[in-house]
Design a protein that fits this description.
Layout (H helix, E strand, L loop, with lengths): L19 E12 L11 E4 L5 E3 L10 E3 L27 E14 L13 E3 L13 E2 L6 E2 L5 E9 L6 E8 L6
Parallel strand pairs: 1-3
Antiparallel strand pairs: 1-5, 2-3, 2-4, 4-5, 5-10, 6-7, 6-8, 9-10
Amino acid sequence: MGVQTSILAAGQPVGFAGMSTSKTDSISANNAEASTNIGFGLGVKPGTTSRAALLPTASGSVLLGVVLNNMTYSPGDFGSIDQDGTPPGLIPDTLMEVIRQGRVFVVVDADAAVTPNVTRLFWRFESDGASNTLVGTFRHVDDTHVVDTRGQVLAVGPIFTAADGTTKICEVYIDAVNSPT
């Protein structure tokens, strides 16, 4: 009987936004945004009702967790979501899984830089007015448009470019269960 000794992985990415590599705690939540999509691998805050999730809106936003990828929503190439909309993502009132503790690939700002197992990350609540415009992403330094989540989010891997050729992703360890107050 033959044994597989190699894998053909041409074009296969290391990971994709919202891919969990180790999950300790997650919850189901609803996209409670009025008209904004929420993409995989973005950080969300609690909504005003039970099991509701929103994108961050201010420096005082509290991290609920990161939206996990779910292949039941029109999967595209290598874990991307195949849908129209700006930003692409899960439309309002869609049920999603949010990882609260564990390892997950998150979307990082285009200019982010990390040292694995050393760099702790900030969470974007508004555009910086330049190249970092997607709310809910993570970055390595405070640019005054971010929430300090360094006590909750640690980069555990390097930054990669996702299969779309543009989106930057990084594997992190998140702990939004034992959040600092």
